[in-house]
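Here is a typical sample entry:
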Amino acid sequence: MEYKKTLNMPKSGFPMRAGLPAREPEMLKHWEELDLYNELLKKNEGKPLFSLHDGPPFSNGALHMGHALNKSLKDFITRMYAMRGYYTPYIPGWDNHGMPIESAIIKQNKLNHKAMSVSEFRSACHEFADHYIDVQRDGFKRMGVVGDWEHPYKTMDPGFEAQEVRVFGRMYQNGHIYKGLKPVYWCPHDETALAEAEIEYKDDPCTTVYVKFPMHDDQGKLGHLDHSKLYFVIWTTTVWTLPGNLAIALHPDESYAVVKAPNGEMYIMAEALVEKVMKIGGFDSYEIVETHPGSFFENMLADHPFLPKTSRLVLADYVTMDSGTGCVHTAPGFGADDYVTCKRYGMDMVVPVDDQGKHTAYAGKYEGMTTDASNPVILQDMKDNGTLFASEDIVHSYPHCWRCKQPIIFRATPQWFCSVDAIKDQAIEAIKGVKWIPGWGEDRISSMVRDRNDWCISRQRRWGVPIPIFYCKDCGEPLIEKDAMHAVSELFRAEGSDAWYIKEAEEILPAGTKCKKCGCTSFTKERDIMDVWFDSGVTHAAVCDTRDYLHWPADLYLEGADQYRGWFQSSLLTSIAWRGKAPYKAVVTHGWVVDGQGRKMSKSLGNGILPQEIVDKYGADILRLWV
């Protein structure tokens, strides 16, 4: 007997198995035929608007699990608000410019970009970015994400670039953009400046050195001591910066000791650090001859340990007593504090390392060496000439480039900056008016904004939005006028930013444009491009403020927790500098996708799972259920 025939079972048209990998494409096709996205909008037309502004992923590769997590969450929230009766336009977007795209295309297509013209290279980058927009769009649609996929925003679109120039112009007119020569993060491998958001810290081994700077001029204060045996002792973890040394910084109020060692030499260092430093130098016994406050030594001169020049003794409140010797090696071309201190003393800027991270002629015998290659050579030279007090091998946290993963350097170069100091208080006040989920996000971004330096927004690359500045051919004066900005914006809107590299300055500027300083009518164009964080940082202005079915500020930003130092912050800073308000009403953050050992999934670790693999095997709904 077949017992199932004896039961009165309900009959259903549902198949016994879900078969999602096979059935989901049929559902998606049905949705597309229905024009589901626009039908959802029609259903709630005229009702309250809810605007979730999409943070743009880079169009430089296939989707990863982080994309799947982020876009699924956005789709859940948008659909939820639609079901609650809100009008919910969702405009997906892509970040198309800068080093992420350049690095990917050079690697994948094996391009010799230096042999290509600017136009050829930019054209190749445009095609590359377009290709991966299509790849990623297909992936998001396969995951069932509903949005206006036919009208996304792209940071390389002419209309977007035009609006970006307008925002830049407004920020300049508001006094928040300037050009300066100051130390910035610099990647020698990619030959470009970097922003704080483009830095990753990793543990690197290094040799720290304690170096003797012989007394040269004591300002008539220490004539009773034998100058041939008198030294200031500095400490540094970056041996290669020593050719750039111009000064030694002491704290004005701390006590500094003249310490006599059994070998007859005398060393000047912070009294609080004498025991520790002398032990590192191999001395079990020593005598403190005399002590003086740091201000006593101001404007004395010491001889450089291996170059024919002197180093000036200066005062700085940032000198601490928790490490080193209390005598701080000061190289204005390589450090922000060093730069400010030397500028206060009227000292000239010296940058003895070029774009490729190689020493210039200023560094003497080390000219042409990379910073890494010069480290052991300089170390050996100091051992040989007797100026090395001590050295130690340690592992320390050191900044690396986010793209090439190579160590970076701090190097002074002429760059364009957004003045964060000028808008910091206003930004922190605006943060208080935003709803942060989770709540600790408010403290996190507030502390980051409060502690950050001015934002370096120029990049020495070719694929990006050109910084719309002209320079007088005769006197070099920058031309940053409202009419000039408008002309550039309209040119980009009509022809795209490629026109900057095709047309001469006189073809772009309004007829009759003259240099205000000297009256010259001939101009050159800025060669640098905008930081990609500036590109994505103005999406609120180029998307939310220009599409009449959206509104500004957006109701919600939703991204990973790493965006407190990235997109959340760049969007906030441009918005405050442009319009004086935050670009979002609420911000939600999520975590990262990790493997079984709690490590972030990444290609380099080989521990990643592609979303497509899960979708092909189990279906997109299983992936969304996991999210």
Notes: The first strand starts at residue 93 and ends at 94. The chain has a mean pLDDT of 91. The CA atoms of residues 439 and 485 lie 40 Å apart.
